[in-house]
Amino acid sequence: MAVTPSSISLESLDLDPAFALHRGGKLEVRSTVPVRDADDLSLAYTPGVAKVCTAIAEEPELVNDYTWVSNVVAVVSDGTAVLGLGDIGPAAAMPVMEGKALLFKQFANVDAVPICLDCTDVDALVETVARLAPSFGGINLEDISAPRCFEVEDRLRELLDIPVFHDDQHGTAIVALAALKNAARLTGRPLGGLRAVVAGAGASGVAVSRILLGAGIGDIAVSDSRGIIYEGRAGLNPVKEALARDTNRAGLRGGTEEALAGADVFIGLSGSTVSEEAIASMAPGAIVFALSNPTPEVHPEVARRHAAVVATGRSDFPNQINNVLAFPGVFRGALDVRATTITENMKVAAAEALAAVVGDDLSADYVIPSPFDARVAPAVTAAVAAQARLDGVARL
């Protein structure tokens, strides 16, 4: 029997609405067929189930039609980079993974199973997830620290013939691109005419930079805790070395704030702070996405004194860059056509569909729709499914 530490009273915790909501977890498993009598039992289990098992053994693809596999995603974490909490371990990560599964179901009717693994070695993570994969139609990697997350995702994508998607990277990138497309439209500039500075070269910073490069942004400089990344800088890991080759055509050195002078776009994904003076030094019509949570790199009210468009990762300010706008529809679309992978084109298609939801209602406080806009998931789903077929990765 588990012993409750004397310093923690469950009764006192339950007075907090967050703890009260989480009591007993946020998920349960429910059956989709009735078992009312012996006939139902004989069909749902033995002997009827044997017919289905035999058919799947002879034709493995039937698992997608006669089990839940084609509509279920594994939400997998090792607990090393959880939200803004850092390396808190697999047990403490479970409430977040449960929450992710809840959002999959709520917004796109995708069933998801939270799995927190007690290992951090890349080989062990890859092997474990690969062995679990036959039970799922997709793998959503979550809260795995950089740079390991890049290798884990790359290797699983090579091994598996189902979608593998690290949401900390690609969900953030999709929503940021959608918001930036609309912010650029609002301020009358093409993406190709913008110079951006991205603060943070972790999972989300690298992915945002990559998707912006693919979308044709004019130039982009990325900074980490040691300043702007550039070719030849000592101590870069392979991911940052590759980023250095593809970014910073202006050859900038120094820190984030120096790079912001004359820049059109700031995207903060670092947890650091940026001064008002640095934001004021940006080009006219600046776009500021201060996305660190819960404390943005610069307070939105301060940023608005100097920027035309301001977005954050928070729900209490306009223009929330929230991954829930992307990942449910991305997986729904991929699962609907039984895609073998999620391509870069599918991510861009998701961003374009998300941006299009805003339409003619575009304004400085509305460059990205609300997660509760009922149009979002269907739009992203349709775009991703259509692009999967165009890219030749759909099986339906």
From TrEMBL:
Binding site for (S)-malate: N293, N322
Matching Gene3D superfamilies: Malic enzyme, N-terminal domain, NAD(P)-binding Rossmann-like Domain
Positions annotated as active site in the UniProt record: Y45, K100
Note on how the cofactor is bound: Divalent metal cations. Prefers magnesium or manganese.
InterPro entries named among the record's database cross-references: Aminoacid_DH-like_N_sf, Malate_Decarboxylase, Malic_N_dom, Malic_N_dom_sf, Malic_NAD-bd, Malic_NAD-bd_bact_type, Malic_OxRdtase, NAD(P)-bd_dom_sf
Protein name (record): Malate dehydrogenase
Sequence similarity: Belongs to the malic enzymes family.
Organism: Planobispora longispora
Record: residues binding a divalent metal cation: E142, D143, D168
PANTHER family: NADP-DEPENDENT MALIC ENZYME
Cofactor(s) the protein needs: Mg(2+); Mn(2+)
Keywords: Metal-binding, Oxidoreductase
Positions of transmembrane segments: none
